[in-house]
Amino acid sequence: MTSPFRLLWSRLRSLVSKDRLDRDFDDELATHLELLTDDARRRGLSEPDARREALLKLGRPASLREQHRDARGFPLLNALVQDSRYAVRVLWKSPAFTVVVTLTLALGIGANTALFSLVDNLLLRSLPVRDPDRLVQLQVFSAHRIPGLFPKPWASSFDRTVFDSVRAQKQVFADLVGFMRLEDRPTITVDGAVEPEREVEQVSANFFTGLGVSPILGRSPVASDDNVAVISARWWRDRFGRREDVIGRALTIAGNSYSIIGVAPPRFHGFEVDRSADIWISPASEDLMMVARLMPGVTPVQAQAAVHPLLRQVVLERDPRSQSEPMETEALAVGQGLSALRDQYKTALLALMALVAVVLLTTCTNVGNLLMLRNAARRRELTVRAALGAGRSRLIVQSLVESTLLAATGCIAGLLLAQWGVSIVLSMLPLPEPPGGLAFDADTRVVGFAAGVSVLSVLLFGFGPAWRATDVDLTGALRSSQGVTAPKRTRRLGRVLVACQIGLSVLLLVGAGLFVQTVRNLSRLDMGFSVDTLLQVKIDPRFAGYKEGQIAALHRLLLERVSAVPGVRLTSSVDYPLMQGSSTSMAISLPGLERRNDEMWDAVGVGPQFFETMGIELVRGRTFTAADFASDYVPAPVSGSGPRQVSELVRRNGPFIINEAFAKHYYGNADPLLTASPVVGIVRDVKLLGVGSEISPLMFLVSRRPGRFGALVVRTARDTQAIAPAIREAIQTVHPQLFVGLSTVGEAMNRNIAKERMVAAISAFFGLLGLSLACMGIFGVASSNVAQRTRELGIRRALGAGGWSIIRESLRETLVVVAVGLAGGAVAAFVAVRLAASVIADLLFGLTATDVNNLVSAIGVMVVVALAACTLPALRATRIDPLAVIRDE
Amino acid sequence: MSGPGKLDLLQGTLDLMVLRTLATLGSLHGYGIARRIEQVSGDHVILNQGTIYISLVRLEERGWIRSKWGVSENNRRARFYTITKAGEKQLAAETENWERVTAMVGRVLADRGAES
User: Which B residues in the span 28-67 are in contact with A, Cβ-Cβ below 8 Å?
Assistant: First the structure.
């Protein structure tokens, strides 16, 4: 017998040497033709006749060559090519079906790809540097750790001498690089023109060489360079149009001139993932954060031990009070880059990933259902093909080829949708600009993932219909005079798919409900002050050249000017902008109050009329008066007691106003106002630091020496937005550079809950998508039920059945499907929220994952939609004309 | 679609005839095989002579014949085919099979008893 290997070998060989074999065959045919012609000539035919006869006898050479190729090639491959051609033709002929299916698949594939891209970039991928796993950041932390809180380091940046001595530890570190982001985006000019703001990072000269990042243009800085800059590929593209003559151009940053020597590779954005750097300048003038590359075989613990004495010494010199503090040096792995988003968004992204997996199932079910309906319509064609001898496996392959083609187009469209989706998600982040490192990049990983999802979806949606459609009952179908109707089993599979869709939609709705209600709860939260008509104005006195000591006077001047703007009712100032989680920590001994060991209090310095402007309710005592702001604190004389000793801190910071939580937490049952203390008032609990912040003890101080972060708060009359330009102008008349930004506190709160809003928006979108797909499915089932039973319903009608009973009868089957779907969905959702409860607890506010109302309302929404989807088919059932039906019989 | 049933039958018989021809005459090129089949069948088998080559590819692929380049009687480059050992075995088996089938079909077709 012939070995299959021999066959395969000869065919593979024929694939490789296709041209040679074609030529050989042409030779053979030519010889054959020649011999036939000779033969004809010998029989006395004229030359043209001889040639014609020869050609007739041989057959058409082109067609022979085709057959010859087929015979020596892979028949399976050829069949596949044939099937694909056929599938393209079929899909082309039904554009509406093709577009709907492609789009549905694209949504499922695109959603999963977009989420994968985000998860991959933020959680999985390492920085595009050499051996990222060996990179550690060196910092000094307090050895006291509070569980669940990321500690603030004692020291994370170091000067040149420290840098050099750490770098000299060659047995531990292969290299050491330094970087420091310029905290305020400086003014950048190119050719004298001011550029839009960019993130600038100071780096050590060996930053690029040490990380193994080679510029795609120009060179890396070296130690002997003076004021050089490497720019990001992004900025190179956007600002310089990828022109190569960017090398050597000059730019000024905060007044200093730098010469561009290189362009970083496209995926490199620096260590801070959340804020992509666009310009790296060297040499550095400030202290730098240190990232070391460990020598092979050196563990982070060994590295910590090696540098701890040196770094501890640095901290001691900076702050002698740290003498008593236990400290440890930590070498933290930074191969993935530094990212606050990673910690904040990890759960959100994983939850969304689970959600889009459900979306994929929904879209696949929907497409499977559509395919089946169409296959039912193509039943005659399939039957004929089967009758002509096409085997079932061949028909299944044909059907799967079609599905694969659909999935492939869906995949391409999905990648486009994913790119769009990722940019939308990134724009929802509470960042000044979308981080470059998180941008969608259709590289092999992402495309591979999309392709994988597509293959999976073919298996999910293509197999069932292919199996069912090819289950052709030849004798029955050919005998039937009615033509060919879908057999019972096919309709049953269709109903199962629709039930699945309903169930999955319930699941999506439950998810969407949780997140949307979270946002609603958060935005309806009682902040303790009235949010409407409240503006916050950020200023930066340093840009305008004010020194620390002048800021208090500046605030007074600004408040005066802003108060004069028409429509402004009240103004005040605060030492730190609201809703940003910033406050001062104070350690003050208050008379009559036992301060527990090294306990710090959150404190906020405020300007005159702060409580009135904010609308914070006074519970007892008084608010600050003008006199409080005029001078240092002198406690009011208390009758019956002599002059009291007041500590320096209290004298400089008092008097104080506390919130209710403070009073309750620290004074308990004692009265804070009675105990002859510098506390002069108690106000309601407020959430000044942020929407998500807990109600915690808070102390208000008189703002006597506001720092550069101070902001103004403005209470306006009704139309807040309309007044904004006038306020901006009033501030700019004091100094054009002062104004930084203005937003309503409501907007600031929205930024606070950006994550929750993002999750809610995405889950609501997919909830609606699932709902509409399910609606389509239910409509399909109901319509086909009515269509199938037209005759029966018509007869019932003729026999005098009323409208309601017709409706009941026509929808019975559909409602069973809906009920099964709802029950399945309810159970699935019930289980899912219990499994996910602990994971998504951080993402929820004001309700828990297992909230029963949420589940009930999701089911309620689904019921309403299902009934709506049934309306039209039911109406059609009532309009069946009994006479027409009977005539057809 | 090219009626597979009809082609199958033709393919099998053509292969068998080609093998027989090569077994009888030794080394032949495509033209020679086609001519011989036509002669022996008394010009009853009328075929596109080109299809011989499709059959030849198939047979060579299975190792039942092998080929060598040579020069034809009109001094053209031509491929000469010879039957292999495996081919002879296959021919014997197929011939026996063919005889059995035709005898059987013949008997069935000859059975006119039930007709009238």
Answer: 29-31, 34, 48-51, 53-54, 57-58, 61-63
